[in-house]
Write a structure and sequence with these properties.
Length: 417
């Protein structure tokens, strides 16, 4: 299946291309060719580049493609297009087949390192990942229905935990109930902040048996029969003294007056640890200790966390598979340009996942035998819709009406028309 046809079919279902409005709407006509928009998304998202994309695309000039990308592609537009696709999948019934619980949505996030070609103020050097070069980290969020609902690009030297809250508060379509990360995505302060914001934080912590556990009373007063003993005492007085300031911080993030990453960056800039940051850590120590006990006791929780993090790893493989031009590096040096490329890549991934869901729903509609339908649902539930083996992302890109037309009958005839 040609990638261009997949994007066009999903656009006719979700109206993704309508959000690519011109920056100067008053003075410029609102007409633009569909092939130019599709070609621009693929040129950025696949890591091919605008100039090379124009050369390998039929019926596409370099001037037309560059004009479309320069004047109609912005980070806000691309993220809105992603939200359109995610919202369309959220309204489908088939993705709910992958939920572990009907009343709870499990999400996860993880970062992936990319080298930056050229000098960049946003990138940082790391011999472990980039040798003598420098790079960034693309941080991706995914829920258990395989919806890629947010992504951002951060410096490779930044700790990922400070950006977890940004992703959880960003999206209005996917409402997370429980969120998982690996060890790099957790701190004690994140435990406290997610709890106050109404999320359940469930990371996979390396060496969890060696993690410090806390108690409200001195450890020498702990029960002698406890098999899992605490190590330190929680500073309850500090929490009481700064409780009002802590609530103001949470309210600021809840009202989206400022992002959590900016607040953490400011609190970490002091020479001595800020009292508010100490309070947040002290409160997080309570939630962390409770989570460790639950994590050790609940096998299903451990399995659910591991399963969700595996989906993020699969999404990272998906990113490299889509970026056929430069699967492990960015040629852009500015942060805004890097986030545009990452958002276009995520738009392509979401479109492929949406196309897969549409195709499977059409197959279910055409299956009239109850037993055959049951078997098909069982097969779907044991496989992932985040698959791309059937998508052709290479070759010469043809954006003619004949090639873009839905060839497998995914959409109803009135929608395809």
């Amino acid at each position: 299946m040609p990638l261009a046809q997949v994007l066009d079919t999903v656009d006719r279902h979700c109206d993704t291309l309508k959000v690519f409005e011109h920056w100067q709407q008053i003075h410029t006509p609102q007409t633009v060719s569909r092939p130019a928009l599709l070609s621009g998304i693929m040129g950025l998202g696949c890591g091919i580049g605008v100039q090379k994309m124009a050369r390998i695309s039929s019926r596409m000039t370099e001037n037309e493609l560059e004009h479309t990308v320069n004047w109609r592609f912005s980070l806000e537009n691309i993220r809105t297009a992603n939200d359109q696709v995610v919202n369309a999948m959220d309204q489908m019934t088939l993705p709910n087949l992958y939920r572990r619980e009907t009343d709870q949505l499990h999400t996860a996030s993880d970062g992936q390192k990319f080298e930056v070609r050229g000098e960049s103020l946003h990138a940082s050097r790391s011999f472990k990942y980039f040798g003598q070069g420098q790079g960034v980290s693309a941080y991706t969020f995914v829920d258990e229905r395989h919806l890629l609902w947010h992504s951002l690009v951060i410096s490779a030297s930044d700790r990922e935990s400070t950006y977890v809250i940004d992703g959880l508060m960003r999206n209005d379509v996917v409402k997370s109930d429980i969120h998982s990360t690996d060890t790099h995505g957790y701190t004690e302060s994140i435990f406290g902040l997610t709890h106050l914001l109404g999320f359940s934080f469930a990371p996979r912590i390396k060496g969890i048996g060696k993690q410090t556990r806390y108690l409200f009373r001195p450890k020498n007063r702990a029960h002698p029969d406890w098999k899992i003993a605490p190590h330190k005492t929680i500073n309850a007085n500090l929490i009481r003294e700064n409780w009002d300031d802590l609530l103001r911080l949470v309210t600021t993030i809840k009202l989206k007056e400022n992002t959590a990453s900016d607040i953490f960056r400011r609190l970490n800039s002091y020479s001595r640890q800020h009292a508010l940051y100490q309070t947040l850590k002290a409160f997080g120590q309570i939630i962390k200790s409770l989570f460790i006990l639950r994590y050790i006791d609940d096998v299903e929780l451990r399995q659910a966390i591991e399963k969700q993090l595996n989906k993020v790893e699969l999404a990272n493989r998906f990113t490299r598979a889509v970026a056929v031009g430069n699967p492990r590096e960015y040629s852009q040096t500015e942060k805004a340009e890097q986030e545009m490329v990452e958002s276009c890549n995520r738009l392509i991934k979401n479109s492929i996942i949406c196309w897969n869901y549409l195709y499977l729903e059409r197959q279910l509609e055409r299956t009239t035998d109850p037993q055959a339908r049951k078997n098909l649902l069982q097969t779907i539930s044991t496989h992932s819709p985040m698959t791309w083996a059937h998508i052709n992302m290479l070759g010469e890109y043809d954006f003619s009406e004949e090639k873009l037309k839905d060839s497998v009958g995914i959409l109803p005839l009135k929608s395809a028309a």
